[in-house]
Write a structure and sequence with these properties.
about 325 residues, alpha/beta, 434 Repressor (Amino-terminal Domain), Endonuclease, Chain A, 2 domains, six-stranded mixed beta sheet, two-stranded antiparallel sheet, 13 helices, about 50% helix, elongated
Length: about 325
């Protein structure tokens, strides 16, 4: 005979739910799982203290479970969710997350929620963007223009735009470092007026004491060819986390080998990049370049159209 948990999930006789080693480090997936469990507990209206008494756990164990720290097991997840009257589907999703949490490494996140969660819980982050202005620094018009070129449904584009603008609220809460290649700033998106507004926003953000914006100049030549975009997150009580985005595929990496490799890349990028003062000056100059009627002979948009016309000849 097997046994069935409170949510109706049946386990075969002799099934042993995996117990991690007591000194296992927290993983990014475990922290996501803990956040979901906390939301589930809060939906019942119970405080962490009251819930600990109901389940028969110590307050510290509830805290460990909800923060993705040591001691998270599938048995703990089943008991936690059962007391919160989770549905069978909710239980299965939580168990799947629990199994993934036992394995440090990488995964392809199914939703934007993974990025938002780790972005929100990090104490600092440093990123490199070689192609476009980083999402956290984009104006709404710039972001909308980028999404318009991806042929997505209007409903999806509106959701992603709202999410991107909401994520920018983090800029006032912790330290950010942005390395941006000059070619990303010169890529024409939506016309000169839009680019002028985008450059002005970057100039203002560059004055923020918690935000470092440094430009990798084209003048550095081959030394400025530094690979694809990435974000390196730092946490107070967890290992660093690397985020890579390549088209439709996104990865989170925790392996120390990858972390150290990208720290080395950051050192190389910092060696080539302009300092903060020089970068602000370049951004201001670029804002001025785009601050002119788009149909003037020397306007960037007109120059682009003339180049396209010459290619047709």
């Amino acid at each position: 005979m097997g046994w069935r948990c409170a949510a109706g999930i049946e386990f075969p006789a002799g099934t042993r739910l995996t117990l991690p080693m007591s000194d296992r480090e927290s993983t990014a997936r475990a922290r996501e799982l803990g956040a979901e469990l906390r939301k589930l507990r809060e939906s019942t209206g119970w405080s962490a203290f009251d819930f600990a008494s109901i389940v028969g756990w110590s307050n510290s164990k509830v805290s460990r479970v909800e923060n993705g720290l040591r001691g998270i097991t599938e048995i703990d997840v089943v008991r936690f969710a059962a007391y919160c009257r989770a549905t069978k589907d909710e239980m299965e999703e939580l168990l799947a997350r629990c199994r993934e949490a036992l394995i440090p490494g990488y995964w392809v996140p199914a939703q934007l929620s993974s990025l938002v969660f780790h972005e929100s819980t990090a104490t600092s982050s440093v990123s490199y963007q070689p192609l476009v202005v980083p999402g956290l620094l984009q104006t709404a018009d710039y972001a909308a223009a980028l999404m318009a070129d991806k042929s997505m449904a209007a409903k999806d584009a509106a959701y992603l735009l709202e999410a991107r603008m909401t994520r920018q609220e983090l800029l006032d809460r912790r330290q950010f470092g942005f390395f941006i290649h000059e070619q990303a700033l010169r890529l024409p998106v939506g016309g000169d007026r839009l680019m002028n507004e985008q450059m002005l926003k970057l100039v203002l953000l560059a004055e923020h004491p918690w935000i470092s914006i440094r430009i990798v100049p084209v003048a550095a030549g081959a030394r400025s060819a530094l690979g694809g975009e990435f974000v390196l997150f730092a946490f107070e009580d967890a290992r660093p986390l690397l985020y890579l985005e390549h088209g439709p595929v996104s990865l989170f990496l925790e392996d120390r080998h990858y972390i150290e490799a990208y720290r080395g890349r950051l050192a190389g990028i910092a060696d080539v990049a302009l300092d903060r003062g020089q970068s602000r000056e370049m951004l201001a100059a670029m804002a001025s370049e785009f601050d002119r009627p788009e149909d003037t002979p020397d306007g960037p948009q007109m120059a682009k159209e003339q180049r396209e016309q010459r290619t047709k000849w």
